[in-house]
Design goal:
By secondary structure, the protein is α+β, with helices and mostly antiparallel strands. It is about 50% helix and about 10% strand. A hairpin with a 2-residue loop joins β7 and β8. The structure holds adenosine-5'-diphosphate and magnesium ion. The site of adenosine-5'-diphosphate (ADP) has 15 residues, from β9, β11 and β14. GO terms for molecular function: glutamine synthetase activity.
């Protein structure tokens, strides 16, 4: 039998075994305890109970849990696992795990491999060091992780990983998964009810998600010379390379062989873990790449994206690369995002955001399409907030990324459809109705062909059969934006259903009632639709006139999460309580402060310990040179040494500014640190500390241009990019 060895340690340089026949499909999900594995290894009763839990959310009793655990343990050990862990996603945005061995001594000289239902289903976790926003005081440091049967366990390296939710002793969610699962359930209910207007056979609607992941690869040895890259994940200074991305020669270019080796290795690891990676290509910026998996049920897609990032880090290490997930690692070249492709599918197999050939199905499409647009219009500040982070702030609103304004792009044809629908009369004659269906609704299938006018500058674009939320940061956990998007659309669908039902009760025919409400929604959500250049100054002005929010910084954006409207939305849908929202707000701001604080410290250190000493050394060489010239040329040296003396003066000027600005930045930090409440602190870091970054960087970068290349200690952009 062919044994597949998954990644064990970062030092393990052995690539994964490939099946002899070269078929990668045979690797797929080998290390996942999925339905197939369960069916084979569990009794029929236990299997049925787990399926019921997965599909209908029923509880698994202790006896069944024991059976599942035994099967899981034996399966995992056969895959080389020695340990197990509850794998969860705390609010740090990453993943967390604590390994426990299966091994357990039963007498002084005998041991067994133990793993029962108790260990599978729920674990107590000392989680006092995870962000909790004050929900738990440290003396009550208990948190629980609980098995999420809807995401399959997997063996990664030598560890069986069991996806879990993470909640406080008092019941509040401390992770991204818990509210996501709630939101997915809320939208399932709301969308199912609406879908049943069109097809009574629908009994479940699943949210689908495909996350395109962008990243940079940098040679490890070179990256190691840059404390800023290693500590903060981005370059805090560095003059732009003479050649960046201006020739557009990197996008979809030939993948360098060293990178290809990394990608191949990565893809094999992913396939073993059941991550259906499909597409790979060069991105716009030098050394920037993208990986896209095939979309999945949203909860699984979110888990797999988190896992993917972890695998990517490890495989990169094995290939002597450092992988950068930061949204803006380099000034002057594109940043990285994570496009979240989002849609809804029924258990009858219909993508609710795919236009179809029959008019009635198209009315269904229009319903979900328009309700999504309306939801985005109603709650755009929450979508913006869902992607806010200190690191994404460098990308959103910068001129090659989606702006901090959320708008919806739908393309020319659908705009025409909505425009026609909007002005159509309320009381249609039968002929008009037919015409409407034919001319408006019937036109939509052509859209499938219309992928040419995709607007890359839109943060929220309809792309044929799904919406693509492009403002998500490359480093982010997709759970947050997916949770928000699903919640707001669920809320909108619920309101839609109420409005339509009221009209039906008032005597309107179902179809007319639906049309009437949709027409109103089209009017009410017009301001969110924008087809032009989202990066332009004009749009910013226009958006302000339309009353759309434009929060450029995280502290500003996050405030929206605790607005009255937000609290009402999350509480009424049951996705997050007010306590949880407030805790998350605090955690978000705390994380913001820490990130800016670390950057500020690192920048100060580099400026003082690398840049200034190097500049002084070079200046001394110049001074020696001038002295020498004076010896040779006597009084006329001033003319001969004019350039050097000019340089000496410039260097001194830059050093002086760097010193004074670093000093002032440290003072600003001290002031911010002493502010008592976290909101004020975040504001101070944002508006009083961060502005120094640009100034200090400017002068450091000027020195980089002046100083002898041989002396410069930091690897330059051009060297980082082209190696
Ligand atoms: P691009 O946006 O780069 O042109 P694609 O059209 O291939 O790329 O799709 C990008 C991502 O969208 C992929 O991860 C794909 O699986 C995902 N996707 C496609 N259809 C759906 C859907 N119905 N729901 C969610 N994601 C989808
Ligand atoms: Mg895309």
């Amino acid at each position: 039998m062919l044994r597949f060895t998954a990644l064990t340690t970062a030092q393990n340089r052995k690539p994964v075994a490939v099946p002899e026949n070269g078929k990668r499909s045979e690797l797929f999900a080998q290390n996942v305890f999925n339905e197939e594995a369960m069916r084979q290894l569990m009794t029929r009763d236990a299997f049925a109970a787990v399926m019921n839990a997965i599909h209908n959310g029923t509880k698994i009793d202790r006896r069944v849990a024991d059976q599942v655990a035994t099967a899981m343990r034996d399966w995992a050990i056969s895959k080389g696992a020695t340990h197990y862990t509850h794998w969860f996603q705390p609010l740090t945005g990453g993943t967390a795990e604590k390994h426990d061995a299966f091994f357990e001594p039963v007498t002084r000289d005998r041991a067994i491999e133990r793993f029962g239902g108790g260990q599978l289903v729920q674990q107590e976790s000392d989680a006092s060091s995870f962000p909790n926003g004050g929900i738990r005081n440290t003396f009550e440091a208990r948190g629980y992780t609980a098995w999420d049967p809807s995401s399959p366990p997997f063996v990664y390296g030598t560890v069986l990983c069991i996806p879990t939710i993470f909640i406080a002793y008092t019941g509040e969610a401390l992770d991204n998964k818990t509210p996501l699962l709630k939101a997915l359930s809320v939208i399932d209910q709301a969308a199912t009810e609406v879908a049943r207007y069109f097809d009574k056979n629908v009994s479940k609607v699943t949210t689908t998600l495909g996350c395109e992941q962008e990243y940079f690869l940098i040679d490890k040895a070179l990256a190691n010379t840059r404390p800023d890259l290693m500590i903060t994940g981005r370059t805090l200074l560095g003059h732009q390379a003479a050649k960046g991305q201006q020739l557009d020669d990197h996008y979809l270019g030939a993948i360098p062989s060293r990178v290809l080796a990394f990608m191949r290795d990565l893809e094999q690891e992913c396939l073993l873990l059941g991550i259906p990676v499909k597409t790979r290509h060069n991105e716009v910026a030098p050394n920037q790449f993208e990986l896209a998996p095939i979309f999945e049920e949203a909860n699984l897609a979110v888990d797999q994206n988190s896992l993917l990032m972890d695998v990517m880090r490890k495989v990169a290490e094995r290939h002597d690369f450092v992988i950068l997930f930061h949204e803006k690692p380099f000034a002057g070249v594109n940043g990285s995002g994570k496009h979240n492709n989002w849609s809804l599918v029924t258990d009858t197999g219909v993508n609710l955001l795919a236009p179809s050939k029959t008019p009635i199905k198209n009315l269904q499409f229009l319903t979900f399409f328009i309700c999504t647009i309306k939801a985005v219009c109603e709650y755009e500040p929450l979508l913006r907030a869902s992607v806010a982070s200190a690191t994404n702030d460098y990308r959103l609103g910068a001129n090659e990324a989606p702006p901090a304004i959320v708008s919806v792009f739908i393309g020319e044809q659908l705009t025409q459809v909505l425009d026609a629908l909007e002005v159509s009369s309320d009381n249609l004659s039968p002929e008009e109705k037919t015409e409407l269906k034919l001319n408006v609704v019937g036109k939509i299938p052509d859209l499938f062909l219309d992928t040419t006018d995709r607007n890359r500058t839109s943060p929220f674009a309809f792309t044929g059969n799904k919406f693509e939320f492009r403002a998500v940061g490359s480093k982010a956990n997709c759970g947050k934006p997916t949770m928000v998007l699903s919640t707001i659309v669920a809320q909108q669908l619920t309101e839609f259903k109420k409005a339509v039902d009221a009209l039906i009760e008032g005597g309107k025919k179902k179809e007319d009632a639906i049309f009437k409400v949709l027409r109103r929604y089209i009017k009410e959500s017009k301001k969110i639709r924008f087809e032009g250049d989202g990066y332009s100054k004009e749009w910013e002005e226009e958006a302000a006139r339309r009353g759309l929010s434009n929060h450029k910084t995280t502290p500003e954006a996050l405030k929206e999460n605790i607005s009255e409207k937000a609290v009402a939305l999350f509480e009424s849908t049951g996705v997050l309580s007010k306590v949880e929202l407030l805790a998350r707000y605090e955690i978000g701001l705390e994380e913001y402060v820490k990130t800016v604080q670390i950057e500020s410290r690192v920048l100060g250190d580099i400026a003082r310990n690398h840049v200034v000493p190097t500049a002084v050394r070079y200046q001394n060489t110049l001074i020696e040179n001038v002295k020498g010239l004076k010896e040779i040329f006597g009084d006329s040296y001033q003319e001969v040494a004019a350039e050097q003396m000019e340089l000496i003066r410039h260097i001194s000027e830059h050093i002086k500014v760097i010193h004074s600005q670093v000093e002032a930045m440290v003072e600003a930090r001290k002031h911010a640190n002493h502010l008592p409440d976290f909101e004020a602190k975040a504001d101070a870091y944002c508006n009083e500390v961060k502005p120094f970054f640009e100034i200090i960087r400017y002068h450091c970068d000027k020195l980089e241009l002046m100083v002898d290349d041989e002396l410069w200690t930091l690897t330059k952009y051009r060297e980082l990019f082209f190696n």
